[in-house]
Design goal:
There is one protein chain. The chain is mostly helical. The protein has one domain: Up-down Bundle (Growth Hormone, Chain: A), CATH 1.20.1250. 85% of the residues lie in helices and 0% in strands. The protein contains 17 helices and no strands. Helix 6 runs antiparallel to helix 13, helix 6 crosses helix 15 and helix 10 packs parallel to helix 16. The radius of gyration is 19 Å and the shape is globular. The relative contact order is 0.17.
């Protein structure tokens, strides 16, 4: 990798890190914030699903736009929307208005994170997809991991308005880094010149199709960590906001620390096997979480889910990066993230229904079962 590309990759990692800290900082407070506004379990699910809905609608068209237009400019537009959203959160007065803000937040997310990932894939040397996507995933998860810890502490010791103001500052820093230090692809000579391929060509690629189905089904259950684990920790175990932030952050940090070594492993060993093993391990973590009666048990269950994700994610993103070279990284990442968002739309709402009807335990049982189903679906489709 040339020095200019290396520097561009490093600044992009820093920008993503700062943006993810800003996004993650509100994670431990949104469920309880919504509950204070009078939201039921289904409404809490809708609040999370609304974010994913706007992402799902926009990620593929934005990704296709990023294959022929400046990725830097699209990322900047997304970060501007992030900054506006952080202000809008302070004016929320009902579950319905919170849903509206989450939809707007999802639009900014669709323009920022997938395009930043696509830009990183364009900078990645061939044959080292796992390693460099491991670096990107490390920045993403480290930032998102720091967020809940900071957010939980601020919420408990200051105010919810301070949490949103802190988010605004962090996202603004990411915006400035991108504007002044991330170069445009054309100056690096990596602007896509090839015609965009039809979406059906991406969907008929056997390996990508199996990845897309795995990601969509798996995402049905994974949303429970951020949307319902904080409620479980407060209502069942009586934990404070700081403890919730520590549990969420530690799990994400564990995933982050393992991304680069697991990414290097994904360049050397069978990526399909890594995905399958990681998916099964994460499901075991959800089953364990149901029976957690102490903070230590909940902590261990969270780490088990994180270990599974750390093993499977670098393999998944390496496959997407490799296939995206021929099909267009923006389009491929857009379709990949749309598949994930579809699962994230349906999952929290259905989990909210389970919570209201059968209780908290059913939510985590559902996550564990759906994780096993996603692995089986991937294994069957990748063999066809």
């Amino acid at each position: 990798m040339e020095e200019k590309s290396v520097n561009a990759f490093r600044v992009l990692l820093l920008s993503v890190f700062m943006a993810m800290v800003g996004l993650g900082i509100i994670s431990p407070i949104i469920p309880n914030y919504a509950s204070d506004l009078g939201a039921s379990g289904i409404y809490i699910g809708l609040i999370y699903s609304s974010f994913s809905l706007s992402r799902a609608i926009l990620q593929t068209p934005v990704g296709r736009l990023a294959d022929t237009y400046s990725k830097k400019k699209i990322i900047i537009a997304g970060l501007i929307m992030y900054t506006i959203t952080s202000v809008l959160y302070t004016y929320v007065y009902s579950p319905e208005t919170l849903i509206a803000v989450r939809i707007f937040h999802g639009v900014g997310s669709a323009m920022m994170m997938p395009v930043a990932m696509a830009y990183a894939m364009r900078l990645t040397p061939k044959g080292e997809e796992g390693k460099y996507m491991g670096y990107m995933n490390t920045a993403l998860f480290t930032g998102f991991g720091a967020g809940p810890f900071i957010g939980g502490y601020i919420y408990e010791n200051y105010s919810i308005a301070t949490v949103f103001n802190t988010m605004s500052v962090l996202v603004s820093i990411s915006l400035l880094l991108t504007i002044f230090l991330v170069p445009d692809e054309e100056s690096l000579g990596i602007m896509d010149k090839t015609p965009r391929v039809p979406i059906r060509k991406i969907l008929t690629n056997k390996m990508l199709l199996s990845i897309l189905v795995y990601r969509a089904v798996n995402a049905l259950g994974r949303g429970t960590i951020m949307s319902f684990l904080p409620l479980f920790a407060v209502q069942i175990l009586g934990l404070s906001g700081t403890y919730i932030g520590v549990i969420l952050s530690t799990g994400i940090f564990a995933t982050a620390l393992l991304q680069t070594p697991m990414g290097i492993l994904a360049d050397r060993y069978n990526r399909k096997h890594m995905l399958i093993i990681g998916g099964v391990v994460a499901s075991l973590g959800y089953f364990y979480m149901v029976n957690a009666g102490t903070i230590v048990e909940l902590f261990l269950a969270r780490l088990t889910v994180s270990a599974g994700g750390a093993l499977s994610l670098p393999a998944v993103t390496a496959i997407v990066a490799e296939e995206g070279r021929e099909l267009g990284v923006g389009s491929t990442v857009g379709v990949f993230n749309t598949a994930m968002s579809i699962g994230q739309i349906v999952g929290p709402v259905f989990s909210g229904f389970l919570l209201d009807t059968y209780g908290m335990g059913s939510v985590f049982y559902f996550s564990g079962v759906i994780g096993v189903i996603s692995v089986l679906a991937f294994w069957l489709l990748s063999r066809i």
